[in-house]
Amino acid sequence: NPMVNCGVFSDSDVFWETTAARLSRKYDFDHSMYTVLSSDGAGWIDGARDYFYGIQKQLDRFHLYRSIRSTFGPEEASRLIGLLGRGDVRAFMDTMGASINNGKTRENLVKRRAVFNFCKEREGELVDYRLREEQPPPGIVLRGMGAIEPYVDKVIANRMKKRGMRWTLAGADAMARLRALNANGELRAYASKRITWQVRTDAKVVGRVKERVLGDPAGWLRKAIPALYGPHRNRPWVRAIRELLSGKEAAL
Question: What's the number of CA atoms in the CB half-sphere (13 Å) around residue 66?
């Protein structure tokens, strides 16, 4: 099952420390593990290497394919994605490099060069980890990485970026951590431990209210519901309220 960790962190090390600590509750890091990290290629993610020994990195297919399709067009993109799907990184990079000058506009030429450079810098992360030479320990089943974007969107982005809101750092951190608790199915247990309800009744206040109600119930009701004596007191909905309360006044 997925585990979500999010919040406002002072730096990437703090994020990876907390992530490693949470994962260690579920997995035994002292024994054979095969760790694969799917990412959009952001630089701060490289810090994971310091916390997970022998980690394999793979560029998220959604972000990578989206960049290729929007830059190279359907025909060229289909050919490039096909090469990558077969694990032929050399042919993928050569084909992309040769097509840079096929851009129809200066803007497209710049975008093609940028995507090529991005892939060149992360060449070791292009191939699906299941097609790589290094194999996992016996007994470990290789599964697809799935898409990371739905988690980002449903857990964080949709709540915090798409509703015209502004956040302080403290408020954003609190909301992000609550969203993570909810995504992990831990929110109810957390709330039950943190929140204690204490209802305090002031005997003097209760006595004064009771005295007023019993002494003049009609007057108390008029003060409690201004509509009964306000400018709209003769309207049908006010008369209906008055009829509903008449029995209560009699009972008091």
Answer: 8
Q: What sign has the CA pseudo-torsion 78, 79, 80, 81?
A: positive
Residue 237's CB is within 10 A of a number of other CB atoms, namely 9
Q: Residue holding tokens 């003049």?
A: 216
Q: How far is CA 49 from CA 13, 54, 130, 235, in A?
A: 11, 7, 19, 73
On whether the pTM is more than 0.90, the answer is no
Report for 94-98, 126-130, 191-195: range of highest mean pLDDT: 94-98
Domain boundaries, the chain: 203-251
Question: How far apart (Å, rounded) are the C-alpha atoms in residues 162 and 184?
Answer: 22
Q: What is the mean pLDDT of residues 97-108?
A: 93
Could you give the percent of the chain with pLDDT greater than 90? 41
% of residues, the chain, pLDDT over 70: 91
Assigned token pair, 18: 């907390």
Say if residues 219 and 229 touch (Cβ distance below 8 Å).
Answer: no
Tell me the mean pLDDT in the region 10-21: 92
